[in-house]
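Reviewers asked in the last cycle whether our approach scales beyond single polypeptides. To address this, we selected a multi-component target totalling 502 residues and predicted its structure end to end. The input consisted of the following lines:
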Amino acid sequence: DTLSQSQFDTVYNFLSLVIAAQLFTAVFLLISLPRILPRYRQAITVAIVVCGIATYHYFRIFDSFKEAFVSESVGGTGTYSQAEGAAFNEGYRYVDWLLTVPLLLVELVAVLALARKVQSRLLVRLVPAAALMIALGYPGEISDDNGVRGLFGILSTIPFAYILFVLFVQLSKSLENQPANVRGTLGNLRYLLLLSWGVYPIAYLLPLLDIAGADAWVGKQVGYSIADIVAKAVYALIIFQVARIKSFDDD
Amino acid sequence: DTLSQSQFDTVYNFLSLVIAAQLFTAVFLLISLPRILPRYRQAITVAIVVCGIATYHYFRIFDSFKEAFVSESVGGTGTYSQAEGAAFNEGYRYVDWLLTVPLLLVELVAVLALARKVQSRLLVRLVPAAALMIALGYPGEISDDNGVRGLFGILSTIPFAYILFVLFVQLSKSLENQPANVRGTLGNLRYLLLLSWGVYPIAYLLPLLDIAGADAWVGKQVGYSIADIVAKAVYALIIFQVARIKSFDDD
Ligand SMILES: CC1=C(/C=C/C(C)=C/C=C/C(C)=C/C=O)C(C)(C)CCC1
Ligand SMILES: CC1=C(/C=C/C(C)=C/C=C/C(C)=C/C=O)C(C)(C)CCC1
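The resulting structure, written as structure tokens, was:
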């Protein structure tokens, strides 16, 4: 596949945008940590780690992209074609998700500051389900066979549906016990999660729908970039907001 | 395009100057943070993040410049011409502004320490307008067609004018309620903002006025560099000054 210069630039600039967004969300949270009551620091610490892991992987993805697509024309104008001996590694994304998706759920549960028992009951369900969802998606992602992709997609959707069930049904009772001035924010946070997480299975479906080519590929990279910023950085800032409000209330 | 050695050196040294200025403004503010009352730390934290994001992008811009212009003469004397397969990426600037311009407005509003309601009413207007202004400028910047550049320039000027209206008309009442000994500084800060922000639309206009060539390009990079130092680092130091004075008063 070849990319036009503007397609190349679009992906290039979006990948760099994600690095800046994740890195400086982590920096912001790290500097702001002392302003949060100790009991909510666990949630913010996990958020810092998640944005840090994403920063690392986006540095890798950025370098992988720069190595995989090259132009020979003066001034880098004209088309970019695939380099010899260098593939663009989509695998970084699955490695990233394997670590960060369970942690995103830990963040959410931690900021609720529930009773120890309720908390571990939730985590014991959400964390393995999240890891299983990503692990089951990976064999489908790297397969060229649409049958294999479809099969693992369905298998991966089972833990995904279970996570949504826990978040939207089982968690609802705990949300009612949260202070009134954060209940709305937490409700919106769940919808932001649903919306941003929904991007990933849709991107996975594209090859099954025979949507391919350079435009679709560029669209997918841009979609992943925006979804990653929303699902990690924006999500972390909302969790920070909740922790700040609860810190004032408890004071 | 080719650059003479002195043109190359000028851009090279200015880009490095910006890295040093932004990075060590961030370091200075980070070290000074504990000397500020907690209520003004949000403003200074955002200022640190803004200078940090600019540092990241200037490292990238610097590397992109070094890759895009090369000389083959011994000792690097003589002219520098455009390299094969490497473009100078102006896109970094727009990615930077997309993140930092809204945050510069957050900084300003945060240091005023207004009532929660007044603050969110201001931010809900300023932040989306700033993001929209940059997003609308980008398609014009990357287009070779002067018609497209003109059209998006006009569209982008609408949110720009709106921001100035909010800052110079709607914000004036809030400024009157600030302590007397910072009122003058805050007034000057608005003019410094107007002056430095004005550089960007002017640089955008140059191709429409048929001002092109190596000299104009070098001038634009130098102008951006100076404007970026004033609009972020100098601006942050003035905000810090305001926060220091208010911290003494409140003590
Ligand atoms: C359901 C499903 C999937 C779900 C992926 C999800 C939900 C990923 C979430 C990633 C996040 C939140 C990243 C954070 O930035 C896969 C694995 C694509 C495989 C196809 C079926
Ligand atoms: C009005 C206008 C523009 C305004 C840009 C501004 C106001 C940028 C400010 C940047 C800052 C403050 C950077 C900080 O260092 C564009 C996008 C060039 C497009 C043309 C019309």
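Residues B 97, 100-101, 104, 133-134, 137, 153, 156-157, 160, 197, 200-201, 204, 228, 231-232 surround retinal (ligand 2) (CB under 6 Å). We regard this as preliminary and will revisit it once experimental data from Aim 1 are available.
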